[in-house]
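Quick one: structure for this chain?
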Amino acid sequence: MEKIILDVDTGIDDALAILLAVESGRFDILGITAVNGNVPLDYVIKNTKKVLKHTGKESINVYKGASRPILIEPFHEYSVHGNDGIGGALSSIEVDSDDVADMFAPDFIIEQAERHQGELTLIMVGPLTNLALALRKEPRLAKWIKQVVVMGGLVSEAGKGNTLPTSEFNMYADAEAAKMVFHSGIPLKLVSLDVTKKTFLTSEDIEKLKGTHYYDFVKECTAVYRKYSEENYGVNGCALHDPLTVGVVLDPTLVTTASYFVDIETKSELSYGQTICDFGNLWNKEPNVEICLDVDSERFISMFIDTLKNTIN
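Got it. Here's what it folds into:
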């Protein structure tokens, strides 16, 4: 099984990504690292532990990471994820958010990367603060990691961002961290809004989970997200940004990719956090990111539903 660390800022789609990673049965999950993002860090930890308890995988350690971005003030997305980050779901599950593994998340990433050189995949579905801090402390990390698969950015659909017209939330939430990671030489695959916005989990899809362990949770936690999507995009659905990122590790053929040089804007008020892809090689720089150009969305949605359907109430 592939060794992974899942780095999350657990809002709704992070929670669904955890379900997919756990229930796929194809990962050796060394740990889950938490980072400030969709909601403050304490909520991220609480939500992550609730989801793990719901899956029966409480033995997976959660590591506390960065509580704020490197330079800017924290920015959260309550309008999409609800006041608690998971749409009020799992309210009956009690967890202790102080009961976390006794190691700072960036240090855990360094430790595991050194121990499993060439074998470890990082799946990053939140702001890249933890990885940036790890790289700053141990630059050799870039050589130790097998691959880093990142949910973030917008490369070919400029103007269709979800935070600024040019920018996706994870990049916007800590653009300085993203810039450090993109310039580190670490092997990166970017699963951007260009493809994730094509993977909508509709209310009809959710009904296919009826009778399974996760039906109530998926229906309840996505309600606020689906309402937001309906009001803003006219579709009652939930874009599976983070689950697709896990899916791409499970089956790389879900996406069509190509490698280009990509940089991160950190200075402009109009485009802070923009992922700028040099499609025409105007900068004459070596590619540093494998970007996703297209996705087999129907096949991925089927994968997601089928994986969760295997858990019967």
